[in-house]
Task: structure prediction
Amino acid sequence: MPGCKGIYYLFGKDNTSLSITLWDDENALAGSQQAADRLRSETSAQQHLQILNVAEFEVLTRELRD
Result:
């Protein structure tokens, strides 16, 4: 999706998962919401998963190492 900088998909030992998407800015995030809602619904239905929560956060610090 336009403005998406990346995604992390985390899978826990207790069969829970968490996805984190990173966006260029608030406008890119806002522009993606309808498509993201549709994608979440379709993916969760296909994989028989339940979406428990969707929340937005601001990235305050970023540090990645190879």
